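From the shared-data thread, chain only:
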Amino acid sequence: MGAQLRNIYHMKQLPLAALFGTSLLCLSISPLLAAEQADTLDNIVVTADRKARTVDETLAPVTIITRKDIEKYQATDVAEVLRRVPGINISNNGGVGKQTSVFLRGTASNHVLVLVDGVKIGSATTGATAFEHVPLDQVERIEVVRGPRSSLYGSEAIGGVIQIFTRKGGKGFRPEVNISAGSHNTQEADVNLAGGNQTTWYNLNAGHSQTDGINACNSATSGCFMIEPDKDGYRRKSASLRAGHRFANGTELEASLSRSQGKNFSDGDIFSGNSNDFVQENLSGKIKHRLGERVAISAQIGQSRDESYSYFNGGDLNPFASRQFNTRRNTASLQTDVTLNPDAALTVGMDTQKDNVTSDNNYTVKSRKNDGLFASYQHTFGKANLEVSARSDDNEQFGKHNTGAVAVGYNISDNLRMTASHGKAFRAPTFNELYWPGAGDPNLKPEKSTNTEIGLNGKWVNGNWSANVFENKINDMIPVWPPSNIDKATIRGVELGASTKLAGWDVNANVTLQNPKNAAGVNDGKLLLRRPKQIANVDIDRKLGNIRVGATVHAESERYDNPANTPASRLSGYGTLDLRADYQMAKDWAIGAKVGNILDKKYQTAQGYNQDGINGLVTLKYAPK
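Structure, as tokens:
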């Protein structure tokens, strides 16, 4: 495999990659040692290993997006912050509120496991997560783990795991109000009330968002059956509550609820509908208790709901098509973390999941249960680290499916570490793939993958850098439609990232070079649907007294909108530039302004669907100190 990975790319053939690779090289040779010592507090990540560990301890590539990052970037939706993560590209069907798919390391959008406060979300019918309906004002933190994690989480974690944490209160009372207005008659408002003391915490959030939107479709492709030259708007109202308490004996209880509902307008016809009502809701209850200094037991129950109702011209539910798809997913888990000695730790656990589907579509099977057992062992041998994990899933549809992973790390020096890993993952077919009337195949097998990667991570005074090389082979892959286990895929790639401070500017940059190709059948050697070979991001920010300014560059190479890569389906490469600034007017008041796509670039991330041109947003924030 090493020879294959070394020959994935020739830089002279990748002008976009060469440009950003040069940027990363410049970061690495800058006079960093002359700068002031940066904060060295370790970031804590819980998603990579299903328990709290520092980023330095975990052996998986991880990106953490904090509330401070979200506010600094003046981001308006989850996709906007996720597209900064190495290895991620986004597909969107025509603007705010429209279907948004996240591709991680060249894998499909349903190859990414998504959690909210530890609860698995998404539709059991489509296998997709409606990122477009997740209110960003509810989000405290996002953790993205790249690479397979089925050995801990089960189905879907082929490309990685994205976990979204809702906002959490702390000591003291901290209210916050945000009001925004911008292009296309965009109006947003949210109120956040956070508080607590040393033993109790709470956070309450409520928000409203609406926009006239843009004309979603520009041609009769990809589901745009009827082109209407009007704007396709979006409305959403949302609320969330998260609260917890720590008892005198150390036991912790926490509960969370997040909900969003609204209406989405699109181009369509009497068969597909041109408006959609949606509901997304997530419930979670957790308890954690320590037995002495070495053992911690935690349990969680949760429920996620994904509901969709389709209408035509604001009338009744569509008379000629399936128009109601409701998924309810109930989950429960029990986990024990044991510190065996100062150098060794063990995690064992079990979880269960039951999916229920309610629809006017005549699914022959409407519920499915999955039980899983998992274990993970970590050991430190001086400068070396070892992680081994394994899981067995028992599914009502497929029977048992086993996965495993092993990772090693070695600290070459205090500021340089090498990692290597090998893991297996799988994805269970969705209800649509199995039971869609006239097209589903109940005999489908799970998709299976094997991923191998090598990483190198380094630190300098004012930042860090990383390089990861990976190869992911997927067997029994199910094409978009009709469903069948006929395809295979091989995805090879390199991720480069760096952050530092240059001349007073905070600089973060990453580039992904990947080759996500079909490896079997009539489309052998063709690029996988909507996946580019090159993705690059650069963020620069600077604080000047009470003013902070910044800019973002995002670029992707060409991709194709069908598996055959026909010339007519080619989507051109593109690059966008966003500018932002905010001003702390007084102790409690701040105002921010953002101009997106300031060069007014015309581009598509899904064929037939428009993307917004130059656009602006102004936000007023009140947060008494």
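Residues 1-42 have pLDDT under 50 and may be disordered.
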